[in-house]
Specification:
It is built from 2 helices and 8 strands. With 143 residues, the chain is of the alpha+beta class. It has a single domain, classed as Immunoglobulin-like (Sandwich). The strands form 2 sheets. Strands 2, 3, 5, 6 and 7 form a 5-stranded antiparallel sheet that branches. A 3-stranded mixed sheet has the order 4-1-8.
Length: 143
């Protein structure tokens, strides 16, 4: 009798591992930029509109990746399935922040998931939102 419970326990624990493994996959991000290939690509992954896109401290994941070419590939591993938005900028001068001119416009290239872009403001979370439900591959053009 105990053997049967042990067998069921092992079976259900293995099914739990499979279910967990299937509820999180990688997001691969290809960032295309046209400026000088130096500095860092800064990525912030948001799960909600709270803080998007200007407060990376509220992002669920932040990545800083050195760039040496016009395309930088970034892999975010084991991200649970759901809705997300990404904000990216090219930290060309390696100071860790996006720089602005006197009028408040960014002087470093930036972009968002869905390549969402507005003329005079950042897009909303909803405009940049994408559904992550498997291996997700995204391309973001930063300008």
């Amino acid at each position: 009798m105990q053997f049967r419970f042990l067998l069921f326990g092992i079976l259900f624990s293995q099914l739990g591992l499979v279910a967990t493994a299937q509820s999180a996959r990688d997001i691969t991000l290809n960032v295309h930029h046209h400026g000088a290939a130096k500095g860092f690509i800064m990525v912030a992954l948001y799960k909600s509109e709270d803080g998007f896109p200007n407060d990376p401290q509220k992002a669920i994941l932040q990545i800083k990746e050195a760039t040496q070419s016009k395309i930088t590939t970034i892999r975010m591993q084991s991200i649970p399935f759901g809705n997300y938005a990404i904000a990216v900028f090219h930290d060309a001068n390696s100071d860790g922040k996006i720089n602005y001119n006197l009028l408040g416009a960014p002087t470093e290239a930036y972009g968002f998931s869905n390549n969402a872009r507005k003329m005079f403001s950042a897009p909303s979370f909803k405009e940049a939102m994408f559904r992550h439900a498997g291996e997700t591959n995204l391309k973001i053009d930063i300008k």
